Amino acid sequence: MSVKAVSRAIHGHLLIDAALNAILTSQAYQVDVKHIINPAEVDVTLPSELVEAGVLYDRLANDTFSSAGIESSQVLDAIDKKIQRVKDSMTDQLTSKLWI
Q1: Of 1, 11, 58, 66, which one is least surrounded by beta carbons within 10 A?
Q2: Nearest Cα to Cα of residue 46 among 93, 37, 65
Q3: Which domain holds residue 52?
Q4: Could you tell me the pTM of the whole model?
């Protein structure tokens, strides 16, 4: 397999992963997917947990926050639990077993 083929496969995997996470998050918080993907482009108020996660991301991206702080973040744990409940509710669907 060429390097280009491997690169394309990894890129495709990351795109699918991002899309599935956006869909799961939108279902967990009952917000339209387009609000999850581009919240700045749409005039909508996101749940406070998602806003806090965005602030954490910005701080981490700007090197004003450590990865140890991210690991101990309660807001990320709350988001994870909420998304996990959505995943658990899909266990009886065959397609979700394949992708999630």
Answers
A1: 1
A2: 37
A3: 3-99
A4: 0.75
Nearest to 75 by CA among 51, 57, 49, 94: 49
Contact 12, 3 (CB under 8 A): no
pLDDT (tens place) for every residue of the chain, 100 residues total: 899 999 999 999 999 999 999 999 999 999 888 877 776 666 677 888 988 988 888 888 888 877 777 777 899 999 999 999 999 988 888 877 777 7
Nearest alpha carbon to residue 76 among 21, 35, 23? 21
Ordered alpha helix ranges (H), 30-90: 33-37, 48-61, 67-71, 74-89
